[in-house]
Design brief:
InterPro entries: PEBP (IPR008914), PEBP-like_sf (IPR036610), PEBP_euk (IPR035810), Phosphatidylethanolamine-bd_CS (IPR001858). The protein is mainly β and 172 residues long. It contains three helices and nine strands.
């Protein structure tokens, strides 16, 4: 999952500033691994994914956010970033179920256009230092990271559109 793929998908720019990936992040829906930029239909994302976090120091904790920067419509994303999931205090070398779910998982259900669903893993400064936002809509990953002293260490994304949709994402 190179930064080039994140830049090509405009995750770098729309959601995050450039960063150096330093921790492994593995996302799986129904035993199917998420490869950056792949597509999952909404029916494949009904249940929360299995998240595996790398690292080597159990004293380090991570925060995972899942956002849709294209909500409600990629042509007019007035709710961007829409927060689909927030898990904090995930110990290194474990998975998200060992963390604290601050905002419960809400599966993506895009109604129009192709949406990017972005997972960002942040390193926390300490345990129990990250708190849930007031609302899901108009979440801002950069501002959230600044407010909670978080450092991005990994990211990935997939594309999704309504079940009957087809076609590809266009970039200018």
């Amino acid at each position: 999952m190179s930064g080039d793929t994140l830049a090509l998908g405009q995750v770098i720019g729309d959601v995050l500033d450039p960063f150096t990936r330093s921790v492994r992040l593995s996302v799986m829906y129904n035993n199917r691994p998420l490869l950056t930029g792949c597509e999952f239909k909404p029916s494949a994302t009904v249940n929360k994914p299995k998240i595996m976090v790398g690292g080597d120091d159990l004293r380090i904790f991570y925060t995972l956010v899942m956002v849709d920067p294209d909500a409600p419509n990629p042509s007019n994303p007035t709710l961007k970033e829409y927060l689909h999931w927030l898990v904090t205090d995930i110990p290194a070398t474990t998975n998200a179920k060992f963390g604290r779910e601050m905002v419960c998982y809400e599966n993506p259900q895009p109604m129009s256009g192709i949406h990017r669903l972005v997972f960002v893993l942040f390193q926390q400064m300490g345990r129990e230092t990250v708190f849930a936002p007031d609302m899901r809509q108009n979440f801002n990953s950069r501002r959230f990271a600044l407010e909670h002293h978080l450092v991005p260490v990994a990211a990935s994304y997939f594309n999704s559109q309504r079940e009957a949709g087809c076609g590809g994402r266009r970039f200018n």
